[in-house]
Amino acid sequence: MKLIFLGPPGAGKGTLAAKAVDLVKAPHISTGNIFRAAIAAQSPLGLKVKSILDSGQLVDDETTIGLVKERLAEADVQCGYILDGFPRTIPQAEALAGFSTVDRVVNFDIPDTSVLERLGGRRTCRGCGKNFHIVFGKPKQEGICDHCGGELYTRDDDREEAIKKRLEVYREQTAPLIDYYRKKGILADVDARPAVETVVENFKKSLGL
Ligand code: AP5
């Protein structure tokens, strides 16, 4: 199944995608993770996008579309994928339609108050990128990743100013995609407010799994 995960920053898209990989048997592709890996590697792409991510703005469409087009040409995603964080603008959605046919778009619905709470408490592993939360998803040992033993840190774009900017950018540029995909008849709404286990159940119901 070819899926898009849509929703505001901090809605839980990455957390759900990590669980959905086994449910839909498809790889998780996160454009945010691709950019953060490039920044960590200090590659030309990373150097170009670091200040953009830190400020909560979007990377330009041309760069982002090129990356995703290349990734979706790889063998492991020909039968399915979970696209998390792409598309984020109407031009990105239109470009995607030119090189892949999406089956369903899952829209994770959550109010701003929950976004602030979730992103303010998020801790991310420097090694494997897995997310934890200081209240809702504590690691076994404080500051250490349960999976790879890496150091947990606060993303630069999880500071209050950047979160506000990301929400603004989401409303202006990404939220119009909800109607765009609803009109195409492939949008499924999921209530993302409850605990992770309940969101997983809501997700399964929304896709009839
Ligand atoms: P990206 O990494 O995609 O950021 P995002 O969309 O803002 O999403 P997040 O990763 O912040 O949140 P999430 O919904 O995955 O939530 P999570 O599961 O972590 O993009 C980063 C940047 O890259 C962008 O700002 C932009 O600059 C650039 N970029 C990326 N894609 C781009 C594109 N297509 N075009 C242009 N630029 C692009 O959960 C959050 C926290 O809540 C965690 O701590 C988690 O443990 C906790 N949590 C999750 N679910 C629950 C729950 N049900 N209950 C309680 N806590 C929960």
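^ BIS(adenosine)-5'-pentaphosphate complex. The longest strand covers residues 104-109. The first helix runs from residue 13 to 24.
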